[in-house]
Amino acid sequence: MAMSALDYRPARLGGREDDSVPPELQTQLQGTPMLPDPAESCPGFEKHVKMVHGTTTLAFKYKGGVVVAVDSRASAGAYIASQTVKKVIEINPFLLGTMAGGAADCSFWERYLGMRCRLFELDHKERISTCAASKVLSNITLQYRGKGLSMGTMICGWDKTGPQIYYVDSDGQRLGGPLFSVGSGSTFAYGVLDSGYSYDLTKEAALDLAQRAIFAATYRDAYSGGTVRCYHIDKDGWKRVSEADSMDLYFKFKGEVKA
Asked: Residue 180: phi, psi to the nearest 5?
């Protein structure tokens, strides 16, 4: 019996030859062992893998610029895959993007955004605005809506209009605002931010608030942890301000933690 090397149709035809296979190929395939149809022997194999994500990222504006803070834990369900993930993508010297959702999706598309921003600068002889950069990413994710992308990112930067933050997700939604937190630990971070946020904060107070908010998430959320990284963006561009292990922050802020 002849068998197609391209599919499993002979197995489903009950031993009859597949007329779509050329005669010369049928001769070559004489004696090819029968293979089971995976749709019958492996039911459910075609289903998408269920991805479980966990992280905490935040960004907010204040009178001195933008503060961005993230954790560094990557999880796959209950398994901690890494404690050293860099969740801030440096798009250009004045733009940062955060990662929440699928690490591969966020990393690829934000690096692609960096390329598009550079091309804009070369074409127009000026730096792209934060608003325009976020719109580029939003248009991209909208095209892939429903295709399995998993992204919840914040595009943060400083342009002619001053400090700006835009939230963009994998459904193409785009929203500007003064304060955002994204990820499984965001509910805990919002609790700290809502109680301490003010536009008139000093730089030191703003950085301390961001650090405390991420720490609160790492303390309560099992999917957040590792190193807490803080960035600051002003008219001179972004700068990484601090990196602190969440365990060290526990001893720093343990007086504020309630059992």
From this structure: -140, 150
Q: Is 29:5 a contact under the CB 8 Å cutoff?
A: yes
**DSSP of 73-135:** -EEETTEEEES----EEEEETTEEEE--B-HHHHHHHHHHHHHHHHHHHHHHSSPPPHHHHHH
Angle (nearest 5°) at CA 220 between 217 and 224: 50
Residue 130 and residue 24 in contact, taking contact as beta carbons nearer than 8 Å: no
Structure tokens at 150: 């998993």
**pLDDT at 248 exceeding the cut of 50:** yes
**Predicted confidence (pLDDT) per residue in 54-106, tens digit:** 789 999 999 999 999 999 998 877 788 888 889 999 999 999 999 998 888 99
Mean pLDDT of 115-140: 94
CB 248 within 8 A of CB 204: no
Distance CA 138, CA 118 (A): 17
Tally DSSP H helices, then E strands, for the chain: 8, 12
Q: Encoding tokens for residue 135?
A: 């719109």
Domains present along the chain, CATH in parentheses: 9-41 (no CATH), 57-256 (3.60.20.10)
User: What is the pTM assigned to this prediction?
Assistant: 0.77
Quickly state the pLDDT bin for 2 (edges 50, 70, 90).
Answer: very low
Gap between the Cα atoms of 185 and 72, Å rounded: 12
As a whole number of angstroms, the distance between CA 133 and CA 154 comes to 11
C-alpha dihedral (45, 141, 67, 162), degrees to nearest 10: 180
Residue-level pLDDT at 53: 64
Residues with catalytic roles = 55
* 137 contacts 169 by C-beta, under 8 angstroms: no
